[in-house]
Amino acid sequence: MQKLEVFGANKLKGKIKISGSKxxxxxxxxxxxxxxxxxxxxxLPKVKDIETMIFLLQSxxxxxxxxxxxxxxxxxxxxxxxxxxxxxxxxRAGILVLGPLLAKFGSAKVSLPGGCAIGTRPIDIHLKALxxxxxxxxISNGYVNAIAPNGLKGxxxxxxxxxxxxxxxxxxxxxxxxxxxxxxxxxxxxxxKDLTIFLNKMGCKIKWLSKRKVKIIGVDNLKNTDHSVMFDxxxxxxxxxxxxxxxxxxxxxxxxxxxxxxxxxxxxxVGAKIRIFQNEIKIIGNKKIxxxxxxxxxxxxxxxxxxxQIMVLLCKANKKSKIKEEIFENRFMHVGELNRMxxxxxxxxxxxxxxxxANFKAAELMATDLRASVSLILAALxxxxxxxxxxxxxxxxxxxxxxxxxxxVGAKIKRIN
Length: 417
Fold this sequence. Notes:
The protein has helices spanning 22-31, 48-59, 85-88, 98-105, 124-131, 164-174, 190-202, 233-245, 261-269, 307-314, 335-340, 370-381, 393-396, 402-408, and strands at 3-7, 13-17, 39-42, 63-66, 70-74, 82-83, 107-111, 136-140, 143-147, 156-158, 180-184, 205-210, 213-217, 225-228, 249-253, 273-276, 280-284, 293-295, 321-324, 345-348, 351-354, 364-366, 386-390, 412-416. By secondary structure, it is of the alpha/beta class.
């Protein structure tokens, strides 16, 4: 089992190039199942979740050629409709193949999704919305059995709450539905807009009518597609926080700063100095860190995927801070490990109170999920001595070459067996 060894107390200085977005790549790969034409995808991150999704597509019959800097997908012989538990169990995005398989074949059998243990993540919103397109479904032995006896038919659907996954699944499925579909109360994360751009490039007809309402007109034919995936907002936010917590001086490259406005505003409030360029953000960490109260929220709010990381920074604040987790009900699993390192964090329901003025001490640590694992690295970078982080397979699901990128800017970090 691989571990990370981290020596703290170094100020990070230099440039970090941000990889393509995991959370944009996964629905785009799922959506590629709609097409039997050639698809070329660029800027995919080299992370475990992408590798798993590629295996899943291959198990369904997709032929995939992996080049150095792009991927070519050929679905001309893709005809299987069964997504097995073995491939879907490690990531929640596996459920995103349900929409395209139903759209293409009128039936599918897909395992219920897995991923991080940060909440129940029910897919009832996906299924109820799909039923409004004419899908009948049952769940047995951990699988969704779904069929559209008369094909998918366009309809008006209002999501009962904002759901990124349900929005993605329905956007993809509705592209082949007969007639027009209107989706309301949609998630509008930049990754969903990137999916929309990709689908329209394929020949789908999708138009955003207002902030959270989208119209999809069903089509029959698609075309060859070439698409470059957007940058990873969460990776960029993580390294910005790393710069702030180590009193570093980092240039974060290959980003669109407009899509990080909320994160930048919060980092400025806590005292970091930030300069914004066209595709680059420069951050200089401050010795004095100000306390703040924040809550996670759907885009354009503060992302739940950066909650663990910002908590580490607030452990160093001069006064008490509070974080309210509004997205997932079990996303404070990193708190116990941070407290072991010297933090003073208490949990009351979905709210964490962070006392501040913490002096992190090196320790042997256990990662519990993807974002929790990177929060432990941030804490270790700010502590004196050697920390060991176990179960880093979580980390490899979403961060490309993290130790190499951190080493380049002065971190003492290495992978050990």
